[in-house]
Amino acid sequence: MTRRGWLLFIALSLCWGIPYLFIRVAVVDLDPLIVAFGRTALGGLILLPLAVRARALRPLLAHWKILLLYTVVEIIGPWFLLGHAETRLNSSTTGLIIAVVPIVAAIILTVMGLDRLDARRISGLVIGLAGVALLVGLDVRLDDFVAVGQLLLVVVGYAIGPIIISRRLADLPSLGVVTASLLIAAAAYAPFTPLVWPESWTAPALGSVIVLAVICTATAFLVMFALIAEAGPARMTLITYVSPAVAVLLGAIVLGEPLTIGLAIGFPLVIVGSVLGTWRSSPRTDNVVGTDAVPTIERER
Fold first, then answer.
1. Average pLDDT per consecutive 10 residues, the chain (301 residues; last block may be shorter)
2. Residue 282 is assigned to a structural domain of this protein
């Protein structure tokens, strides 16, 4: 990978590693629905002029049903549930549980007949799941299992969303898909925001929502497009392994979250399991989809 590619990779790792920290800060003073609405609305409005200039929205009209499905499973559900989960769990634990997305994606692709699991990948799945079990068993209290369940739903959504993109929306402009999905999500949240709108916004909460929208959403997607163009989609999967490390370090440094035994043991197992579990198998036929295209969004065509 070129020097520019590495710089983009590092930038995207930070953009997608810090959301857990800022969500954790924001939900102290704001309802998770407000956080999700602010992030999608502001992020979508930032990208809208770019999408209009690139004429990236009109091609989406004929595919609105599948775009709506993608938005529900990738943004509307996950971002709302993620905020609620972080009212109970620290950002480090959240980031590590989300790290199993590639494993879940590999299982879904196999069940759908789009990929296959060999002995190495099965071993990776077992190792990764063992890491999550250690993480949850050692670091989560009994009253936190509702939050863990919410995060598992987020994981499933994050695994399904990119599959929908790669199978049904890959021929559409990526910038248009992202912009439209953010604005659709904001529109879905909007009717409910008056019910939980805060009487006042604290500086940490407002700043966190702005960072989430500008850095973790709008900027992150633009960097992602540049990285795909520079290094190809296969290397994008590595972001999923690096981002949790960023979440753990920031949680410990900024929020004083503990680096516990569960994190120390579970994190390496999750990473090793994810790498092995998502290792591309030799395809049986020409139409088999390798998982090194997941969990990424295909390049614009």
1. 81 86 93 97 96 95 95 95 91 78 80 77 77 65 80 92 85 92 97 95 96 93 77 57 71 76 76 69 46 38 38
2. yes
Q: Can you give 59-116 as a three-state secondary structure string?
A: HHHHHHHHHHHHHHHHHHHHHHHHHHHCCCCCHHHHHHHHCCHHHHHHHHHHHCCCCC
Residue 139 domain boundaries: 3-293
- Ordered DSSP codes for 185-248: HHHHHGGGHHHH--SS--HHHHHHHHHHHIIIIIIHHHHHHHHHHHH-GGGGHHHHHHHHHHHH
**Would you state the structure tokens that stand for residue 69, as one six-digit string?**
């499905």
Residue 298 in any domain: the answer is no
**Residue 295: predicted pLDDT:** 41
Q: What pLDDT is attached to residue 81?
A: 96
Instruction: Give domain status of residue 300, yes or no.
Output: no
Q: How far apart are CA 181 and CA 188, in angstroms?
A: 10
Give pLDDT, residue 253: 81
Q: What separation in angstroms does the CA of 248 have from each of 45, 95, 245, 264? A: 30, 7, 5, 10
**Rounded to an integer, what is the distance from CA 82 to the centroid of its chain?**
10
> Total domain count for the chain?
1
User: Can you read off the two tokens belonging to residue 92?
Assistant: 């480090």
Tokens of 158: 């994050």
Helix, coil or strand: residue 1: coil
What integer pLDDT is reported at residue 238 of this predicted model? 57
Q: At what angle do helices 261-277 and 91-98 cross, to 10 degrees?
A: 20
Choose among 265, 218, 220: nearest CA to 243.
Answer: 220
**What local confidence, expressed as pLDDT, does residue 193 receive?**
97
CA distance 159 to 164: 9
Does residue 145 sit within a domain? yes
Alpha carbon distance 137, 133 (integer Å): 6
